[in-house]
Amino acid sequence: MGRVIAVANQKGGVGKTTTAINLASSLAAAEVNTLLIDCDPQANASSGMGFVKDPERISTYHLLTGLAGMEEALQITEMEQLWLVPSHKNLIGANIELVEAERREFRLRDALEPLRERFQFIVLDCPPALDLLTLNALVAADSVLIPMQAEYFALEGVSELLDTIERIRAALNPTLSVEGVVLTMLDERTNLAQQVMAELKRYFGDRLFQSTIPRNIRLAEAPSHGKPVLIYDVRSRGAESYIRLAKEIISRNIPAQEESGSIEVSSSEEVSSPAPPA
Question: Of the four listed, 30, 98, 195, 211, which is most buried by Cβ atoms within 10 Å?
């Protein structure tokens, strides 16, 4: 069964979508079948993968409202072994439309079930709010990856998110766990960053990823070109940091004999368009 990882943080502006896009791309570059699902009405993960807004395209909205199945929603991306389920701004309406719906918290989980054996990793990009969309993602997920900045207010936000995870575990998804915390937009030269890292290490222990994501201009530029940083500039510090993060996650979740030897992507590589895995 594929591992479903929700990339979530109730605080906005912490590099959540950047992490979802580039983690999914790095996992695919490690030659494991990976699916990225955009659960945010802002659809930034979709545009960051090069998908222009199209109200006619099957999106996460159609999945949650039962208008289409997961097979119809799958989109081939520029990267081999990476597929996308895009979002659209009309997804915001699902928060209202699903209020009285049957199994409203389990819509995404039910939609994912037929595909879990076809993808080794499924990455969910969540909205920066605890609404019905995020709730669906956390109920569908096996674990939560928490991107955060090394700042005081970010610590408060993580505390609130952990409380949310506990409540969801108690009521809706007893197997939900914390995949880990990854520090984003990090400048290790500052005293504050060092203090926050030390505090997180004491609290999370091994659940704080050794890989950190630095502030990097190539990483910031990549979404405007509709590309993951691995394709935009594979030699950048941003690309290297997400490759290291992907390797950490793979080592935690895939037995050593199944791991790929390395992650290799050329920034100028022509990637063939694959068919969905059988």
Answer: 30
Band (pLDDT 50/70/90 cuts) for residue 267 is: very low
Q: Which residues are paired to 34 by β-bridges? A: 82, 121
Query: Length of the chain, please?
Result: 278
Nearest of 107, 119, 142, 131 to residue 36 by alpha carbon: 119
117 is written with which tokens? 């054996």
| Eight-state DSSP code of residue 231 | H
In angstroms, rounded to a whole number, what is the distance separating the alpha carbons of residues 131 and 136? 9
199 or 245: whose pLDDT is higher? 245
Residue type, 114: P
Give, in degrees to the nearest 5, the angle at Cα 107 between 103 and 112: 140
For the segment 202-225, what is each residue's pLDDT rounded down to a tens digit? Answer: 888 999 999 999 999 999 999 999
- Structure tokens, 196: 């926050």
DSSP lists the bridge partners of residue 5 as: 123, 143
Q: What was the pLDDT predicted at 264?
A: 54
